[in-house]
Amino acid sequence: MQIATPYLMFLGDVPDRLAAKTAYGINDWRPEWCVGQFRMEGCAADLGIPDLTLEEAVAKGCKTMVVGVVNAGGVLPDHWVAEIVAALDAGLDVASGLHVRLGSIPQIAEAAKRNGRALHDVRHTTETFPTGKGTKRPGRRLLTVGTDCSVGKKYTALALERGMRERGFDADFRATGQTGVFISGRGVAIDAVVADFISGAVEWVSPAAEPNHWDLIEGQGSLFHPSFAGVSLGLLHGAQADAFVICHEPTRTRMRGVEATLPTIQEVIDLTIRCGSLTNPGIRPVGIAVNTQALPEAQARALLSEAESVHGLPATDPVRFGVEGIVDRIAAEFPA
User: Fold this and answer.
1) Cα–Cα distance, 325 to 21 (Å, whole number)
2) Tens digits of per-residue pLDDT, 158-178?
3) According to the CATH classification, is domain 140-333 in 3.40.50.1010?
4) Which of 20, 276, 300, 307 sits most deeply, having the most CB atoms within 10 A of its CB?
5) How buried is residue 138: exposed, middle or buried, by Cβ count under 10 Å (0-12/13-18/19+)?
6) pLDDT tens across 73-89, in order?
7) How far apart are CA 321 and CA 16, in angstroms?
């Protein structure tokens, strides 16, 4: 799908930053596309870009309003419908990464039709996927895995793409979630694929490549998360990852949205190797990515140093401190 840029980012009235992670991700990695934000009363998220009315957004050249939010079940709240209809009436296309299809809501479908505007459901694809085969294919692949949801798997993969390219690697980010698709312009939202075809979809996202080409595959969920482990496992098998990076948020004690206790980094390493060996017996960890945003710098550096000592892997916050150590490890473990 071709989504017209630039964007007006719609945040609705979400209760916190994490609920608007799609908008934050697009703004962080494609700021030149994000002209402004449209927030409803009570919204607790703020991208730090101008608040615009719909009319102001159109006057500034916005082409598409992006529903930049995530929530459990991917539903569109009823009280947002009128705002989306108003955006269509103002002359904007609308794009969404939610599970619910925009066109399935009669008021939105009618508004799009009468205004000749496009509706983009990024989480849904018209592509037909085979079941995964697990057959070894050329090229090298790295998968980001997590101790939980929303811990930095996408940001880590994107940071590695940038860092590896700067070092001369042939490397591409491969999107498996709606935000990644918005950022990269390609990929598939794995959590919207029928379960039998998840691993096949990942094989499609990361096809055969030149022997030294790296696909940096965006991880989803966690093998330990009661809600999303099925998606994470299918992704792991389809990726046939040669390498993986463990992503972690150190201030959490419970997994997001459930009462399950957060696993340790070592537990994630062990289970990833055990499960990933089904389609790639050579799978190995090459680094730890920790989201230290909530920590002062001295505490963050001490935590990373401890993680390196305990696990024998380079540890960093990819956004705050870069990915040089992990790239060094990749270069040493997988010489060209």
Assistant:
1) 26
2) 999 999 999 999 999 999 998
3) no
4) 20
5) exposed
6) 778 999 999 999 999 99
7) 25
pLDDT digits (tens, 9 = 90+) for 89-126: 999 999 998 989 999 999 999 999 999 999 999 988 88
Residue 72 has pLDDT above 80, yes or no: no
What are the structural domain ranges in the chain?
Answer: 7-121, 140-333
Hey, what amino acid is at 97? G
At which residue do the structure tokens 């990695």 appear? Answer: 29
In the numeric block, which tokens belong to residue 140?
């090298």
Q: How many CB atoms lie within 10 A of CB 43?
A: 20
CATH class of the domain comprising 7-121 = alpha beta
Residue-by-residue DSSP string for 181-200: HHHHS----GGGS-GGGHHH
Residues across the chain: 336
Q: Cβ–Cβ contacts within 10 Å for residue 81, how many?
A: 16
Distances in Å between the Cα of 159 and the Cα atoms of 144, 289, 326, 334 are: 11, 10, 11, 19
pLDDT at 237 over 90: yes
